[in-house]
Specification:
The protein has 499 residues and is α/β, with parallel strands linked by helices. It contains 14 helices and 23 strands. A 7-stranded mixed sheet has the order 12-15-16-11-10-18-19, sandwiched between helices. A 5-stranded parallel sheet has the order 7-6-5-8-9, with helices on both faces. Strands 3-4-23 form a 3-stranded antiparallel sheet, with no helix packed on it. It binds nicotinamide-adenine-dinucleotide.
């Protein structure tokens, strides 16, 4: 199936003639040309979204859940097509493209159930004849800015919850993956058609780059902006939202580590390292980037990894058996090469990392994943390089490993491989990992939707997806009801006229 047939099956016409070229990283070819939306069009879209929210907030939440249930059905039916489009646009292998759609289905199921569980508390009042409670109300327009590497799931995490919570959504996807966004919108519109009667403008997609995202961030009619991307993006968006008292949900870069202890099951660790360090060509926010291994097992583990890395199949992400597809573009390749050169200057021993298939595909950027043995956690290790580079460092004392683990600016995902209960529990304790995600005997990537997803420090502090992340998409009202004939004041304050 060629790209024209693929997008048509997803309800789109293959677009041409615009000023935004869309390329497939598989071979670097141009697969579409879209028209960018202007900041003025963003303003109009936000206006429509305000109107949509005004109507949608009155629809009972379980009925709103029904729309998301229908959307989940569309996703289930179109999983092979959408998964394939994700692969064509991002270069992630087909298994991972399909996995991303499954993640969307999962969050739809979760959100549908949640639509009957938007609970508030009942609170004991200190005053006689009074009752206190909290209620959760729809917040308004939710702006979503998303990164290229999860071009569909990140929006779905936000949109499924936001729609159930009674909000409307305006989405500015990555300019590198707009077709996937338009396909998601098309499937959502099919669900809207079956649902019937939802307001226009409930979900909208506008295509463009950072300037368009900025227009969304600066619009004071948007009470919440969920922004996923680099720490640089967070630094641009966070202060602007704070200045207008908007709510920011920031999901930014990670620099995720694994501690491997002497008691670890090295077979299990090797498999987990492989998936989390080279999966998605190292282009997951939760990719494993730092391996902190006890010196007693380091030589063995490095040997196993070197062997495993040698047999990884890099190539066409649509072909069966491929584990690593291309990097997204030349800029990603250049930053990988710059990091490897810098690591060499800082005492690292680099194996792998070279470009492959450049003869066959001069416009595509395939690399062998790299392992870099470092003498210490130097400056280059402390930064996120969005590519398949695994820095390996040794340790002798557990406290040193933990200090190294937490000694980076980012705080997204983390894990420990150990069979020692004390080490495992300490890692999860308040003195252990400082990340938003901390795992035992599981790699740092590939989270399930049931838990809250996000991280601390320069990762931005936001939480999306499961648990009580829905609360960010609503506003809380605390209500006190007086059913007595008196008017006692809180804290026992007396405020009488004294007659
Ligand atoms: P990026 O920061 O280059 O772009 C992300 C999005 O922000 C794009 O849609 C872009 O157009 C937009 N943008 C850029 N500048 C903007 C501005 N000034 N105002 C508003 N919008 C702006 O990121 P990327 O290269 O697409 O993605 C890779 C990065 O995303 C990595 O750092 C990765 O760790 C991070 N990421 C984080 C998570 C998470 O959940 N924590 C998930 C996926 C990706």
């Amino acid at each position: 199936m060629d790209i024209a047939q693929l997008v048509e099956a997803l309800g789109l016409q293959l677009l041409s003639g615009g000023d935004l070229p869309v390329r497939s990283p598989i071979d670097g070819s141009e697969i579409a040309r879209l028209c960018r939306h202007s900041p003025a069009e963003m303003g109009l879209a936000v206006g429509r979204a305000v109107d949509a929210w005004t109507a949608w907030r009155k629809v009972p939440a379980p009925k709103r859940g029904e729309l998301i249930r229908l959307f989940g059905e569309e996703l289930r039916a179109n999983k092979p097509l959408l998964g394939r489009l994700i692969t064509v646009e991002t270069g992630k292998i087909l298994q991972e493209g399909l996995g991303e759609v499954q993640e969307m289905v999962d969050i739809c199921d979760f959100a549908c159930g949640l639509s009957r569980q938007l609970y508030g508390l009942t609170i004991a009042s200190e005053r006689p004849g009074h009752r206190m409670m909290e209620t959760w109300h729809p917040l308004g327009v939710v702006g979503v800015i998303s990164a290229f590497n999860f071009p569909a799931a990140v929006w779905a995490w936000n949109a499924a919850l936001a729609i159930v919570c009674g909000d409307s959504v305006v989405w500015k996807p990555s300019e590198k993956t707009p077709l996937t966004a338009l396909a998601c919108q098309s499937l959502f519109e099919r669900a809207l058609g079956r649902f019937g009667g939802a307001p226009d403008g409930l979900s909208q997609v506008l295509v463009g780059a950072g300037d368009l995202g900025q227009a969304l961030v600066e619009d004071s009619r948007v009470p919440l902006v969920s922004a996923t991307g680099s720490t640089r993006l967070g630094r641009a968006v966070g202060p602007k939202l704070a200045a207008r008292f908007g709510r920011a949900l920031l999901e930014l870069g990670g620099n995720n580590a694994m501690i491997v202890c002497p008691s670890a099951d090295l077979d299990l660790a090797t498999r987990a390292i492989l998936f989390s360090a080279v999966g998605t060509a190292g282009q997951r926010c939760t990719s494993l980037r730092r391996l902190i291994v006890h010196n007693a097992v380091k030589p063995q583990l490095v040997e196993r990894l070197t062997k495993a890395y040698a047999s990884i199949r890099v190539g066409d992400p649509l072909a069966e058996g491929t584990l690593v597809g291309p990097l997204i573009d030349q800029a990603a390749f250049d930053s990988m090469q710059a990091a490897l050169a810098e690591a060499g200057r800082q005492g690292g021993r680099v194996s792998g990392g070279q470009r492959v298939f450049d003869q066959a595909h001069p416009e595509a950027w395939y690399v062998r994943p790299a392992i870099v043995e470092m003498p210490a956690q130097t400056a280059v290790v402390r930064q996120e390089t969005f590519a398949p580079i695994l820095y390996v460092m040794g340790y002798d004392a557990f406290a040193t490993a933990l200090a190294m683990h937490n000694g980076v600016p980012q705080g997204l995902s983390s894990c420990i491989f150990t069979n020692d209960l004390r080490e495992a529990e300490f890692f999860l304790s308040p003195e252990g990992s400082d990340c938003g995600i901390a795992n035992v005997n599981i790699g740092p990537s590939g989270a399930e939707i049931g838990g809250a997803f996000g991280g601390e420090k320069e990762t931005g502090g936001g939480r999306e997806s499961g648990s009580d992340a829905w609360k960010t998409y609503m506003r809380r009202a605390t209500n006190t009801v007086n059913y007595s004939r008196e008017l006692p004041l809180a804290q026992g304050i007396s405020f009488d006229l004294g007659e």
